[in-house]
Write a structure and sequence with these properties.
single chain, alpha/beta, Rossmann fold, 5-stranded parallel sheet, 12 strands, 32% helix, globular, binds 2-keto-D-gluconic acid
Length: 322
């Protein structure tokens, strides 16, 4: 009998075709997240599951398993939606999809840097609402933003995505400084300046971009006491997870012009983000699309399928979390 696999959300067509060749597969044609209570009820029929960041795979989920499920292959590099502690206890494999999304997330980081510093949200809505014609284009005031070229970008979390963002930012002549748990090798640093203490780095940043996973250590890494160390012209960028930012503190800094702007792709409590962000002209927002390119989502979907394939064919996993 072929192992039974549950795919919790729509994944790329080619990946769906591939997995159906090897396994008995239940797809989710509706492409709506399966509520946690329903997931718990149905998952016990399956040997493996392909999950996404939208699924809540909590301690409760693991406590209700009957021993059939052996592997959860997440489509995503982050896995903060999964209780890894419970997966370990129940000896369930968890895999993720690192590397293949580095470029796409770095592109989104650059997009946010440019959009926030050049006031693209305001400029775009002016044209789209047909209000451009009502403006007096004063050469020193009309949609004037801040240049990016030659500025200093502080990276919090210099992993694979952080390093790719640094590499892309260098195309604009940006200088890179970074804070990370450990100092990187000279090769990986590639000229970036290391700060073991985030508080010493922040005053030097024209831009600061978060690239850490969501953990208890990185929760609210940007809060009133760290944001207050940024220069007044600083721009905050986040493509990692909303939990790294204290919303009250960032919104206060943006409302009271303690910093210049923010560009955010991720939020606490997505998609029900704090509505105060929507009222701020100096906050450019996106709906968590960091990895959303055809090429990247295909590569992520394929990697999850390949992890399932390797597991059931007793081959080494491509990217094992636990
Ligand atoms: C995914 C992400 O879109 O990879 C991640 O960690 O945040 C995104 O690329 C999301 O997790 C859907 O699974």
């Amino acid at each position: 009998m072929r192992p039974k696999i549950l795919v919790s959300r729509k994944i790329s067509d080619l990946a769906e075709e591939k997995i159906q060749k090897e396994f008995e597969v239940t797809l989710n044609p509706k492409d709506e997240p399966i509520p946690e209570s329903d997931l718990i009820k149905i998952v016990n029929d399956y040997d493996g599951m392909i999950s996404t960041g939208f699924d809540k795979i909590t301690e409760n989920f693991f406590n209700n398993l009957n021993g059939k499920l052996k592997i959860i292959a997440q489509v995503g590099v982050g896995y903060d939606n999964i209780s890894i502690k419970s997966a370990k206890e129940k000896k369930i494999k968890v895999t993720n999809t690192p590397n293949v999304l580095n470029e796409a997330v770095a592109e989104t980081t650059i997009l946010l840097i440019l959009a926030a510093s050049r006031r693209i949200g305001e400029a775009y809505s002016l044209v789209k609402t047909d209000n451009w014609k009502n403006q007096k284009p004063d050469l020193t005031k009309f949609m004037i933003g801040n240049s990016v070229t030659g500025k200093t970008l502080g990276i919090i979390g210099m992993g694979r995505i952080g390093r790719m963002a640094a590499k892309s930012a260098k195309a604009f002549g940006m200088k890179i400084v970074y804070h990370n748990r450990n100092k990187l090798s000279d090769y990986q640093e590639d000229g970036a300046k290391y700060f073991s203490d985030i508080k010493s780095m922040l005053p030097e940043c024209d831009f600061v971009s978060i690239h850490t996973p969501a953990t208890s250590e990185t929760k609210h890494i940007l809060n009133a006491s760290t944001i207050n160390l940024l220069p007044k012209h600083a721009v905050v960028i986040n493509t990692s997870r909303g939990s790294t930012i204290n919303d009250d503190d960032l919104i206060d800094a943006l409302e009271n012009k303690k910093i210049y702007a923010a560009g955010l792709d991720v939020f606490n409590n997505e998609p029900n983000l704090d509505k105060r962000y929507l009222k701020l002209d100096n906050c450019f927002v996106l709906p968590h699309i960091g990895s959303a390119t055809h090429e990247t989502r295909l590569a992520m979907s394929m990697m999850a399928v390949d992890n399932i394939y390797c597991f059931f064919n007793k081959k080494p996993l491509i990217s094992e979390v636990v």
